[in-house]
Amino acid sequence: MNNYKAQINITLRAGILDVQGKTVEHALHSIDYPMISQLRIGKFVEMNVEADNSGAAAKLADEACKKLIANPIIEDYKITVSESE
């Protein structure tokens, strides 16, 4: 078994209102940053995975996202797997 690092970026799906993002965007506009728009805030998850290869590690991370880490109804996610140092 090898050790891999899985990094997962989770964002709300397009069309889902990002209340936190809108709040921060409005706050930025109020402090003289009107040039910033369509701000969206997501989550970042990092975990170690033991697997035979990077493909198996990505599959395990994907299963974990579908079952618990992400809400597949309203969130999208992208997984990046690399060998642990």
Would you write up a description of this structure?
The structure is a single chain. The chain is α+β, with helices and mostly antiparallel strands. It has a single domain (2-83), classed as Phosphoribosylformylglycinamidine synthase subunit PurS (Mth169, Chain: A). It contains 2 helices and 3 strands. It has a 3-stranded antiparallel sheet with strand order 2-1-3, with helices on one face.
Write the layout of secondary structure elements.
Elements: E1 2-12, H1 19-30, E2 43-51, H2 54-69, E3 75-83
Antiparallel strand pairs: 1-2, 1-3
Q: How many β-strand stretches?
A: 3
Runs in which pLDDT lies below 50 for 5 or more consecutive residues are none
Tally the helices: 2
**Run of helices and strands:** EHEHE
Cα(first) to Cα(last) distance is 14 Å
Largest sheet: spatial strand order: 2-1-3
Secondary-structure class: alpha+beta
Give the oligomeric state.
single chain
- Please state the second-level CATH architecture: 2-Layer Sandwich
Q: Considering the protein shown, what is the CATH homologous superfamily?
A: Phosphoribosylformylglycinamidine synthase subunit PurS
Radius of gyration over alpha carbons? 16 Å
The biggest beta sheet, please?
Answer: 3 strands, antiparallel
Note the beta-strand portion: 25-35%
Please, what is the average pLDDT? Answer: 96
- The fold-level CATH name is Mth169, Chain: A
What would CATH call the class? Alpha Beta
- Proportion of helical residues: 25-40%
Shape: elongated
Tell me the domain tally.
Answer: 1
